[in-house]
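FOLDING PROBLEM:
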Amino acid sequence: IENNPQYMNRLSGITDIKTMNEDITNNQINKLVDSANLENLKIVKIKKHGVSVSPTILKYANDNEIDLIVMGTHGRRGLGHLFLGSVAEEIVRLSKSPVLTIREEEKPTLISKIDNILVPIDFSERSNVSIKYAIEIAKVYNSKLQLLHVLEDTIPAAYSLSGIMSIYDIDPNIEEKIKNNIEKVFKETIKTEVEHQSSVTNGHAVKEILNFANNNNTDLIVIATHGLTGIEHLMIGSVAEKVSRMAHCPVFITKSFGKDLLAK
């Protein structure tokens, strides 16, 4: 086989394509670094070969104890997302480190200016971790925290027979009680005073989070992911993944497992 000219020509062609791709990649990385004004940062340029992008990134992050992964997201919906999927979403779900996703926009949010940070709260340990991260970020940027709980107002059909059509029929003061619970959790979490506001909306979690962010000048969303895989993830999905894909602003996804960046 080694003496077969046809085989050698094919092998040479494959090598040429690989070299060409590496040259293109090098040029693109150099242009990106040069245009981003990163003079004060240490830059390490890494190229990896892999069958699939997500596992390759995750392996590199784990092997090198990466503290934070920053990724762009395309924001595709419907069939575009169904067929193409999202590398960022897989990274968000499986990374042991926090992930910052930034959606491609004509006028992106400047990370140097973060006035309002939205923190969706579901009173789980995961969202408590998000509050802690958001507080640390708010202290750096002197930001205001927007603490939001989405009340998914779904009532079993059997309740309608007794005239109960909404959870508000059971407890008209439920929003006020939830706000009080938010304040309680927040006070138990903070060690220093941070400006904040508590809000409650009702509806579908992803839609309400995105609507709130769009209508309240949110610059950054800090949200937790459950880290489910396989059938569990297929059935339950992830609010954090969907928000990271569709939000107009950067999204910082925290983990209740894996690497912890918070000072003890």
Notes: The first strand starts at residue 69 and ends at 73. Residues 1-39 form one domain. The beta strands are 69-73, 99-103, 116-120, 144-151, 196-202, 220-225, 251-255.
